[in-house]
Amino acid sequence: MAGVCGGLATRLGVRTRNLRTLALLSVLVMGLGALVYVALWVSLVRKGESSSILRRAGSNQREKEILAVATIAALSLLVATQPIGFHGLGVVAWSGALSALGLLMVSRAASDAEKAHLHALATSTPFLGTAPGENGPGFVLRTGASVLLFVVGVNMLSRVGGTPGAAFEVLVGAAALMLGLTVLFAPWWVRTVRDLAQERRARVRAQERADMAAHVHDSVLQTLSLIQRAAANPTEVARLARMQERDLRQWLVDPTSVGRGDNPATTLSALAAQLQRDVEDNYSVAVKLVVVGDCALSDSVRSLMDAAREATINAAKWSDTSSVAVYVEAEPRQVSVFVRDVGCGFDPRAVPGDRQGIARSIVERMNRCGGHSSIRSSLGTGTEVELVLPLADPS
Any idea of the CA torsion for 96, 97, 102, 107, to the nearest 10 degrees? Predict the structure, then answer.
């Protein structure tokens, strides 16, 4: 559960499985095994960390106060149960109470990585995982009720025959009966579980095949029909083919995102994909998009992508080439966009003064949002537009 047995096995040079089996058996000895396990859990340092749970809890005044209150409450509960007949538990009750205090310390002072591990473990365990819609207090209430019922049952069984400790024989007999039934029905149970798993996998595959068939019919076949009609127009055929290729690639990466192109973009990658779709559909030029990293959209990032859109449209309209390359990279400290083409190029110094597409839509826009731009072009070799936006908040 916490890696205690694994760490001790590595330290002692023994097999982990043997040590875990011994730990499980020691729990049956009046619960002392659980108490020892929890004590080692809070006192040993977890691999990759610098301090133990006990030291972290002891260095926090609030955690010490909470632990003291919980200790007093546990002792009071043990003392209060004696007059109403919950006697005979002895060491088991004390071991359980102290183990519960240790687990409280774990829940309060464990590291984030260990809490994530325990949450995943509890979710995968049937009797520990929370039910759908169940919150933390509900889980604690359910667990507390089950422990109370268990204690009441053991206490009542211990009175069988008027002999203290008679519950041990009853519990051993019940455990032997359950073990016998498990051994008898184990093959049937395992086969049933496997059949259910196979049936579930087959149903998922059938659903995926149905979705694929529907998508192929709705998208690919329709596009092929449109291509046949536009066979005399090479530009339209190329546009339809690019649109279908982009749709198929997106469907292979994330099938659930197909058909949601009208939703407003909320991330940098989504806005870049929208730029690619718009330019390809409106200007019949292939946009080869590469996006590295991602980030949320802010006003400055949107301004950056608006400038990138203008640079891409300029390349599609004036470069006299069939494709434009757009490279977008989101780093912790900045976002960069490169728009390249290998078209006819131009001389930036020869641009007429009344042409403000580059000056206002790219250069001034980048300056207003706190970034900068660089445009490199020459006749016959193409154009490269570099846009860089420093991020004031790295998050």
Answer: 100
